[in-house]
Amino acid sequence: EPEVTQTPSHQVTQMGQEVILRCVPISNHLYFYWYRQILGQKVEFLVSFYNNEISEKSEIFDDQFSVERPDGSNFTLKIRSTKLEDSAMYFCASSEAGGRGQGQPQHFGDGTRLSIL
Amino acid sequence: GNSVTQMEGPVTLSEEAFLTINCTYTATGYPSLFWYVQYPGEGLQLLLKATKADDKGSNKGFEATYRKETTSFHLEKGSVQVSDSAVYFCALRGSARQLTFGSGTQLTVLP
Q1: B74 in contact with A at a CB cutoff of 8 Å?
Q2: Is some CB atom of chain B closer than 8 A to the CB atom of A4?
Q3: What's the pLDDT score for residue A102?
Q4: What are all long-range contacts of A49-53, with beta carbons under 8 Å and residues at least 24 apart?
Q5: Which residue of B28, B59, B97 is the best one to mutate when testing the A interface, meaning the one whose CB has the most A CBs within 10 A?
Q6: Most-buried pick from A30, A92, B8, B19 (CB within 10 A)?
Q7: pLDDT in tens, A68-111
Q8: How confident is the model over A25-77, as pLDDT tens digits?
Q9: Buried b (16+ CB within 10 A) or exposed e, A67-80
Q10: Is A56 in contact with A47 (CB distance < 8 Å)?
Q11: Are B105 and B10 in contact (CB under 8 A)?
Q12: Element of type H or E holding A32
């Protein structure tokens, strides 16, 4: 079964440094997402991406965050100047096209654990 | 805005016991509802879904019925196994595509 893959599985970065988290969505999916889960807290939506642009974003997704689909397969999340509070598990997800009422499920990767020192 | 309230954990059961994990939601319109499961060291896997009122989602012996009158989507399984030990997340998708998650319920099944 096709799956979403994320690299690296664990990233350790000094505060203030830039970090790029990488994802390869399922190949025929058209919608891409990033979520994060701070330890002990809920999974929170960050951003969704469709047709090479952001379609929705949360208040968490401020100017230090950006997303990109640099080629036909990768989907990246960049954090420009990391802060201690950015430490979390970051999940990438993708879904097929289809109307919103059709309940297209999102398929998740195994996540990247980001630790900011 | 949308919100999901999930039964607090952790939940510990003996093998073959009956499982219920409560989930209620607040949303405008007609959301789609999902249960995801996270096994240790792995990502979120879709367990089941329901897209309209009175739909029943089912998979691997788990079931949940979309109850609009009580705004609930409780997860049930008649006989749990040790391999069901995981964290279970209730989630909804409203008019936007983003998922809103509950806080997760840790289930441990003892042999």
Answers
A1: no
A2: yes
A3: 56
A4: A49/A75
A5: B97
A6: A92
A7: 998 878 999 999 999 999 999 999 999 987 655 456 889 999 99
A8: 999 899 999 999 998 888 999 999 998 999 999 999 999 999 999 887 899 99
A9: bebeeeeebebebe
A10: yes
A11: yes
A12: strand A31-37
Q: Tell me the backbone φ, ψ of residue A35, rounded to 5 degrees.
A: -130, 160
Cβ atoms B109, A54 nearer than 8 A: no
Q: Tokens for A19, please give them.
A: 């970090």
A23 φ/ψ sector (left φ>0, alpha ψ -120 to 50, else beta): beta
- Cross-chain residue pair A33–B98, CB shorter than 8 Å: yes
When comparing pLDDT for B106 and A102, which is higher? B106
Question: What's the token pair of residue A95?
Answer: 């879904």
Q: Which residue of A has its CA nearest to B103?
A: A42
Query: Do residues B22 and B7 lie in contact, with contact meaning Cβ atoms separated by under 8 Å?
Result: yes
Distances from the Cα of B100 to the Cα of A44, A101, B66, B104, angstroms: 7, 16, 16, 12
Strand partners, A102: none
State the average pLDDT over residues B31-53: 92
